[in-house]
TrEMBL record:
Gene3D superfamilies: 1.10.287.70, 1.20.5.110, Voltage-gated potassium channels. Chain C. InterPro entries: K_chnl_dom, VG_K_chnl, Volt_channel_dom_sf. GO terms for biological process: action potential. It is a multi-pass membrane protein. PANTHER family: POTASSIUM VOLTAGE-GATED CHANNEL PROTEIN SHAB, VOLTAGE-GATED POTASSIUM CHANNEL. Residues 160-216 form the Potassium channel domain. This is Voltage-gated potassium channel. It is found in: Membrane. It comes from the Bacteria. The chain crosses the membrane at residues 28-46, 61-79, 129-149, 191-216.
Amino acid sequence: MSDIPRSGARRADPTEPALSAWELRTDLPMTALAFSFLGVYAWQVLGTEKSPGLHDALDTVMWVIWGIFAVDYLIKFALARHKPRFFVRYLFDLVTVALPMVRQMRALRLITIISVLNRQVSGTIRGKIGLYVAGATLLVGVSAALSVLEAERASPDATIKTFPDALWWTLTTISTVGYGDRYPVTTEGRLVAGALMIGGIALLGVVTGVIASWFVDKISGAEENIERTTREEIAEVRVELAALRELLLAQQHNGQVSAQRESGSGHP
């Protein structure tokens, strides 16, 4: 995603100074709006006892926030110097703005809040990726559970009627296990399921890559330690051999000197 910093805090793009400046100024406000969006959406889905007036008010708040996100995208598009590159780089933003059906997925911008935690995390990029994956998995899971519950619970053939059911379905789907005891029957629910399946495969690929990278680093580290230890031992052996050689040369020299002395003292 375009909003995930690649290493630590967001870095300004020298080729897009105006766009970078705008993003730096709006990151925190837009993240706060994303928190608000997810909270309002969860209240709307889970608050089954609310009055019709409250439901309409929550829906209005969501549309207002969605409109702000749309304006934000248009401003960034206007500020971008390289429009084609911007279009590709911010394709996810365009999808979430253009398709109100998946507007709740805009809450994925909450992943930018992890950049604050990222400053407290030391180590390799692998650890940072793991942090992002954990945050993205949590946000995708919650958003998908809310989405499928809203789409399914009104259907007479629904197998997902409560939020725990939705969470269980999300867990089995995103992990690609798919028990089949819970499944969507509506078109919107199946669209959410398709997106979640693709996301689950992508997340598993990242996790697999992180684990593989960890093993490679461990093996490489062990090989480097063995090689370094071997070099050190060889160096020590060379030093000892050099010392023995000097000792033998010294003894040989002393023996020659003694022999010459004895030979010299034997003549009148």
